[in-house]
Amino acid sequence: MWEKLFQSLEFFPEQASTIAPEVDAVYGFAVAITVFFSVLIFTLLLIFMVRFRRKSEAEIPRPMHGSAPLEIFWSIVPFIITMILFGWGAYVFFNNTRPPTNSMDIHVVGKQWMWKLQHPEGRREINELHVPIGQPVRLIITSEDVIHSFYVPAFRIKRDAVPGRYATAWFEATKTGSFHLFCAEYCGNEHSRMIGRVVVMEPAEYDEWLQDDQQEPLSVTGERLFAELRCDTCHGAEGGGRAPSLEGLFGSRVALEGGGQTVADEGYIRESILDPRHRVVMGFRPTMPTFQGQVSEEEVLEVISYIKTLGVARPGSGDEE
Ligand code: CUA
User: Does 187 contact ligand 1 (Cβ within 6 A)?
Assistant: First the structure.
C-alpha cells in the first residue's frame, strides 16, 4: 500500500532494495500517526474554542480537579504507540545492520572528492558501483581523509565513512538500472560533486562486466604486499612462533593479552596492522612495528583480503557475536 502511495506522489526515491519497503513502512506509520493526532488535536481545539467560550462577563467556570482515568488513558495510548514504533524500528534497524552470510564484499574508500570501490575479484571503480540484482552486497566503508557518508537513497542506506575505522552497510538490489550515489557529509569544497551511481545488472551481465576488465584479485595483490612488507618473516611458517599464525584467523575469536577477547574482523586486523600494540594476542609480546604511513587504506584492504583467503571462520561456525 505504501509503495503505491509513495510512487504515485513521488515524495520518495524509488524502492530498489529489499530493505527500502521496510524502512518506508516504518516511516509511513510514523507520519500517519503524526497526521492523525495533529488533525485530531487541532479539530478538538477549534470545537472546544467555540463550544466552551465565555458567554457572559459574569460566567465563572466550575473548578476542575483532574481525572485519573483520563490521565491513565492518555499515558497508556502514547506508550503503546511509541513501543510499537520502537519495536518495529529496532527490527528494521537490525535487519539493516546485519548482512546475510552469503553477501559479497565490496570495499569502499571515500576520499576528497571521490568514491573508490573495489570488487574482491579485482575490478576497481571510481564513483560507480556495478552489482548484480538479487545478491546481498556488504560494503566495508572507510575514508582516507575526512568524514564522508555513503548514501544511496533508492536503497535507503546511508553510512558514514570515517577515517581510521571500518563501517559496514549492506543491501540487496531488487531492480536493475542506475541509482544515485551521494556523499551525505559535508567534506570540503567539492562535497556536492562527490556523486556517482550504482548500476544494478542481471547476474549474467554482471559476470560479463567483471570479465571485461581483468585485474588482479585483491587477495593476490595482498599476498604480494604481505611478502614485500616482510610480514611472513614472523607470521609465516618460518616465523618460529614469534607472531600468531594467520591460518583460519578471519572471523575467529582471539584472546587478548591483559584479558578479554575480540572477533578478528576487518576492523581488528586493520588495527593490528596500523596500531599493533593496542590489542595484542594472548601469549605474544608487542614486538610488531606499526605500518602506519607505509601502507594506504587500499593496501590494508588488499592485505586483509589475502588474510581472508587463509581461512575464514565466519559463517555458521558458532563464532559469531
Ligand atoms: Cu565526501 Cu561530502
Answer: yes
